[in-house]
Design brief:
single chain; alpha+beta; Nucleoside Triphosphate Pyrophosphohydrolase; seven-stranded mixed β-sheet; three-stranded antiparallel β-sheet; 21% helix; 28% strand; globular; NUDIX_hydrolase-like_dom_sf
């Protein structure tokens, strides 16, 4: 079993958050974004994260983007930009998860890429195409019993979706869950594959 480490999380607004642990495989992302870019000699304009949260039925949390935002009404995993004030990239992921859906991170479990053997990061542009962003995905375990509470400025609905529902972009009741793009779809399906490989799926 991989060693885990405890990290104290504070957000860029000055408030404190609960401690969380992280798997030793994620040590690379325990530094601020500026340090990560310098260490890896990368010149991206920003770093973003996605948090893949699963429930006891092996369903992943998806949120629907607000109708007034970019990519309106499409579905994605919670996430967003890592801020300069975030203690580390993992902290940024935990902060965005709490801000977007009200869930408190307890464990950063593993990196989620776009597929087996792929790069650790994804690359995409901002909505205007003027900035190049580096994106990381992490499977995250959250505080038990917590309820999803959306930031309505960013998202308008949420669901727990199974692997086939993600693959088909449609819930069992026929409701469509069109995703933000192939990058998100690939990471979601890879998150399911990694859980299956680790014997964690039900």
């Amino acid at each position: 079993m991989s060693q885990e480490n405890t990290i104290i999380d504070t957000n860029s607004k000055g408030g404190s958050m609960a401690d969380f642990v992280f798997d030793e495989s994620l040590i690379e992302w325990t530094v601020p974004k500026a340090d990560w870019l310098r260490i890896h000699d990368k010149h991206f304009d920003g770093i973003g994260t996605s948090a893949f949260v699963f429930d006891a039925q092996n369903r992943v949390l998806l949120v629907q983007r607000a109708a007034h935002d970019s990519m309106p009404n499409l579905w994605e995993a919670p996430g967003g930009a890592v801020d300069a004030g975030d203690v580390s990239i993992l902290h940024g992921c935990a902060r965005e998860l709490r801000e977007e859906v009200g869930l408190v991170t307890r464990r950063m479990k593993r990196l989620v890429t776009e597929g087996k053997g792929g790069e650790k990061w994804s690359v995409f542009t901002n909505r205007t195409g003027t900035k190049i962003i580096c994106g990381f995905g992490f499977e995250v375990e959250v505080e038990e019993g917590a309820q999803v509470v959306l930031d309505e400025n960013e998202h308008q609905a949420w669901v727990w979706a199974g692997e086939e529902e993600v693959r088909e972009e449609r819930m069992r009741d026929g409701k469509g869950i069109a995703l933000t793009g192939m990058m998100m779809r690939s990471k979601l399906l890879e998150a399911f594959r990694l859980r299956r490989e680790a014997g964690e799926s039900v």
